[in-house]
Here is the input.
Amino acid sequence: MNTIRLTMAQAVVRYMMAQKVDIDGEIQPMFAGVWAIFGHGNVAGLGEALYHVQDELPTYRAHNEQGMAHAAIAYTKTLNRRQMMACTASAGPGSTNMVTAAAVAHVNRLPVLFLPGDTFATRMPDPVLQQVENFHDHTLTSNDCFKPVSRFFDRITRPEQLLTSLPQAMRVLTDPVECGPVTLALPQDVQTMAFDYPAHFFAETIHRLRRQAADRDELAAAVELIRQARKPLVVAGGGVHYAGALAELDSLVSSYHLPVGETQAGKGALPWDHAQNMGTIGVTGAASTNALAAETDLIIAVGTRLGDFASGSRAMFNPEARLLCLNVASFDAVKHKGQALVGDARLTLPELTDALAGWQPEGAWIEQAARLRGEWHQAVDIATTDRGTDLPSDAEVVGAVNRAAGERDIVVCAAGGLPGELQKLWRTRHDRGYHMEYGYSCMGYELAGGLGTKMAKPDAEVFVMVGDGSYLMLNSEIATSVMLGHKIVAVVLDNRGYGCIHRLQQFCGGPGFNNLLDDCRTVEGGAPRTDFAAHARALGAKAEKVGNIAELEQALERAKAADISYVITLDTDPLLDTGESGSWWDVAVPEVSERSQVEEARRRYESHKARQWQNL
Here is the structure.
């Protein structure tokens, strides 16, 4: 048997380089690069291995470990999970900084390979710098924090363990059902140990998307269920994108005039002006779609895990409605009393289209959907129109950025009040024109995510919309974007605090407390006013502050013409949003309080809980 003598770290890198992917007939590297911040846990092992292959497998240096992992997540999300990146950091805080990002990838079912440095497997120099000593279990290290947020976890304590571990890692990273983050903890001494690996272990492997056909009995039952429906409603989730089933969804819903509501992850599955696109669905969805959800007799959920924002905390849908779940993962297909149709959407949707020949929803339902859709488009026009004030709403800013964006451009966001406004109001005709991390809703994702998105789609203009709170949490990858030459346009909406949670606090009966900066404990002079434009310039970007929507629109044109990352900041109103969309979100309210407002909020809460129980 032919062998190659390599260190464990060199073997990891060579194996990664051997992994390829077939994308529409073109063979490309599975791993587009490695994000690395080196320290004593990985610089001598992985660092040495990556140095020798940097022309074939690029290594990117970031400024924050969580940020670089967010960039890797955004990269693979933008490319529909077909290509991915790896992330490595030193033992200790460098690696645990990536745990939050691993949770983001896990919740959103996105593949990232985490390679955190670990303490010595031999334990000879213990305790080493940054080592977390566990008093009762010496096998534990701080990297065990990755276990609950990884789809696959292993600690490589011998070089030869890669022979069984790496194939399992690739299985998970490329599986449409189990897809998610993989963590291989790499003790720093084992990274440098050599082993005679079989040469065939590094043979080129070409991965192709596995497609699972639906079970015949489940398919027949699904067709019968749909044929009984008079008022069906389709819910399109992120799985439509990952399956590449956009045309198949279009064919089904157009053939049978089925109204469609998109989740945050599913937005863009249909162009915004498609006749069957009712707008988005759920807590931050369109009033049109949510009105239909309250009356529907059948929900056809395609590629969605039906989280609480999509389902209105299980209280939005007609309690008498049936639920059909088409999903590649049986775990998701059986949720909410759903009738499962387990299978790949691209394979299964055409079978439904063919089998339903001759069936149609009732005419009044089709007419009602068209009317509500028209009314919602008018509402969006009103909400996104410039009112001419010096303290605009988030909706007005969304409108200005949307008008500035080209048809193939991308908006990126993650947390706070903006995801709600964007889900309702952003209009995209491009299937990947809307990039929202709302599975984990991780503050700090936005700017780093914009960088990863730009790396995946360099020809698109990437607009990052971010609140002042998220900007202050994680902004360092602005400098990385400038360093790497990947331009993003960031619009910072400064409402002086966490405006979204302030509004939620008041809705739950509470007073303004510890959310807006004016309601926080501060020195006598109050919290400082951050000059976000000056800060962005200090990170190497071009930046300016504007005073209103008209000035924002002019600044956006300058930003699009710029050759490096450009940051625009403006003050916004923390209290204004587009209002109720006809859906409730389950946020528990105290049963006992000294405030009458809380008691009133509790009464409202209990009335919604009663409807929720009807849907259980």
